[in-house]
Amino acid sequence: MAAVLRKLIQGRLPALAGVLCRRSGNEGHLFLNSSGSTLMQPRCGYSSPTESVIVEMDKATGVALLKLNIPPVNSLSLPLLTELAIVLDKLEMDKHCRGLILTSAVPNIFSAGLNLFDMMDKPNEHYSEFWRAVQEIWIKLYGSSLANIAAINGSSPAGGCLLALCSDYRIMANNPHFTIGLNETRLGIVAPFWFKDTLLNTVGKRTTEISLNLGALYSPTEALSLHLVDRLVPETQLLSAATEEMGRWLQVPDHARQITKSMIRKSTLEGLLNQREADIKNFVEFISRDSIQKSLQFYAQSLQKQKQHIHPPSSSCRQQISSVTFARSPWYSLIQRS
Ligand SMILES: CCCC/C=C\CC(=O)SCCNC(=O)CCNC(=O)[C@H](O)C(C)(C)COP(=O)(O)OP(=O)(O)OC[C@H]1O[C@@H](n2cnc3c(N)ncnc32)[C@H](O)[C@@H]1OP(=O)(O)O
Questions:
Q1: pLDDT for position 143
Q2: Separation of 126 CA from ligand 1 center, angstroms?
Q3: Which residues line ligand 1 (CB under 6 A)?
């Protein structure tokens, strides 16, 4: 455990590192950040300038309710990811904050996942910046020291599902019209190894194999049966259920819960932390391919024009994404390795 703590403090797991420093007796206002330098602790007040991330802090309980607020579908664009990262950092550094409930302010949608337009028809520099921001959110959420509960009040495909998977506990509104899952293959793209690992850690190998290969999206009832979510409640009771559940998590002393969480998630986090640049390079190489761009364009157009729910690309589009494309992809070999 001493080695784990040392690594944390050396900045291998930035979010948890900051908290372990401040929670283990630092009563003042100085903490170590991930690079070991000191930071002033900010006081309350987290509203993002554009209100795309709404934060309601309950000072009495130390629980922050964070609502994604980018209609129509809370797609995870570069600006939203950037704002979210700032908010998460502030909450992480607030010594009064112990828990985070993540939900959506947009009716019927938790998050539609990564913004398709950030992955289409852009220069490689943009893809690179975008992917770094996606990585950053995963590192901050999956490595968060806060007790983190997802109150999933709508559909949650792909990157939206990943956000929920980063939580410690997932409660979903029991509406049969909502779906959740990592559906990347249906778009002709491949979920990176750390998406796969996050799913694997939650639902186990066999369910991961089936879900990821098929790009399956599940109803709330199916998701519960696979342990993709932990509990279903009627929509009207979602926030009260999340708040009540948070009470259970906050009964545990913070340091004990944080060290335990770190033990369980550390190796998965390190999987990405140890190769962030290579992962970005692989993403850029993959997403900028003509065949992948065509597939994404087709998918985005079908969403826009027909206003349909998830469906696979047409057979003509599928032909462009041959198995050879994937076999030669560094993403493929990354998945093979991990
Ligand atoms: C190697 C790469 C690895 C990448 C890893 C992760 C990838 C991802 O996360 S990719 C994103 C995958 N997301 C999806 O497949 C979800 C797509 N969206 C939907 O299925 C539906 O929109 C949804 C069920 C979320 C909501 O349905 P509706 O309420 O019926 O809304 P609409 O479908 O009418 O959509 C409204 C509006 O939003 C646009 N939209 C939807 N999703 C996205 C998105 N992910 N990014 C950008 N824009 C999105 C949709 O086109 C509509 O636009 P307009 O027609 O202009 O109104």
A1: 98
A2: 20
A3: 72-73, 75, 109, 112-117, 155, 157-159, 183-184, 187, 189-192, 283, 286-287, 303-304, 307, 309-310
Model confidence over 159-187: pLDDT tens digits? 999 999 999 999 999 999 999 999 999 99
Mapped onto helix, strand or coil, the DSSP state of residue 242 is helix
169 forms beta bridges with: 149
What pTM was estimated for this model as a whole? Answer: 0.84
- In the numeric block, which tokens belong to residue 250? 């906050």
| Catalytic site includes residue 83 | no
Query: Encoding tokens for residue 172?
Result: 């979903």
The active-site residue out of 74, 148, 153, 183 is 183
Query: What are phi and psi for residue 215, nearest 5 degrees?
Result: 60, 45
Which of 18, 143, 154, 159 is catalytic? The answer is 159
Q: 80, 84, 114, 238: which one is catalytic?
A: 114
Torsion from C-alpha of 187, 193, 195, 199, nearest 10 degrees: 110
Residue pointed to by tokens 């985005």: 300
Residue 183 is among the residues annotated as catalytic for this protein: yes
**Is the CB of residue 81 less than 8 Å from the CB of residue 133?**
yes
Neighbours of 26 (CB within 10 A): 14
Spatial neighbors of 196 by CB under 8 A, at least 6 apart, are 208, 212, 335, 338
Judge if ipTM > 0.95. Answer: yes
Question: Each residue of 22-71: pLDDT tens digit?
Answer: 333 222 222 222 322 222 233 345 656 678 999 999 999 999 999 999 99
